[in-house]
Amino acid sequence: MMNTFPYQFIAIEGNIGAGKTTLSNQLAEEYGCRLILEQFTDNPFLPLFYDNPERYSFPVELFFMTERHKQLQEELSQTDLFQQSIIADYFFIKTLLFAKNNLKEEEYRLFQRLFNVLNSTFPRPDLLVYLHRPVERLLHHIRKRGRTFEQDITGTYLEQIQASYLEFFRTETAIPILIIELEDLDFANEIAAYQQVKDLIFQEYGPGVHRKQP
């Protein structure tokens, strides 16, 4: 490890197919950080949800929330939280943002009450990074990685998710939020592109939203 990672806890967020897990892995491997990866494929309701969203939206979101809470509670409560840097490829707030798009109004109100109770105990990240890509590029990545249950995801759905994130960012003033405009930048396979993204992440940011382009 050549350099010290500048954060104790950061979260890498983004829409489906943005590359958040790839970037999290790259940073964790280079800097020896502890890595928290979302275990979304374990959700037994997810394939059913993509086939019939109206029927399975509440169980799929409830399962996501309880599993994310369990994982983050276990990972972030360990005694070495401030001795070894942590990188997570999601932030717990995504639970509420996806639910807002997928649930009926009365279901969402109940879900939000449960979320607020669970969310109150988590530490906030030192930096929240949001990887922003055009919807067309997201769809290309989704098709390329070939997860069967994702192939029916539409551009409209991705636009709704994106809008939810951006709306949340406008209201979050307590932590630094870095939105990186990636377009078609391939940091997974191009060292120079990865370095560009990393240079942006390693800058100092105050609370609020910061938009940057490599």
Describe what this molecule looks like in 3D.
It contains eight helices and six strands, in the order E-H-E-H-H-E-H-H-E-H-H-E-H-E. With 214 residues, the protein is of the alpha/beta class. It has a single domain (9-212), classed as Rossmann fold (3-Layer(aba) Sandwich), CATH 3.40.50.300. Strands 2-3-1-4-5-6 form a six-stranded parallel sheet, sandwiched between helices. Strand 5 (176-181), helix 8 and strand 6 (208-212) form a beta-alpha-beta unit. The longest helix is centred in the first third of the chain and has 24 residues, at 53-76. The protein is globular and about 50 Å long. GO terms for molecular function: ATP binding; deoxynucleoside kinase activity. Pfam families: dNK (PF01712). Residues 10-201 form the Deoxynucleoside kinase domain.
Please indicate the percent range of residues in DSSP E strands (runs of 2 or more).
5-15%
Uncertain segments = none
Q: What is the mean predicted local confidence, pLDDT?
A: 91
Overall body shape: globular
Q: How many helices does DSSP assign?
A: 8
- By CATH, the architecture is named 3-Layer(aba) Sandwich
Rg result: 17 Å
Number of strands: 6
CATH homologous superfamily label = P-loop containing nucleotide triphosphate hydrolases
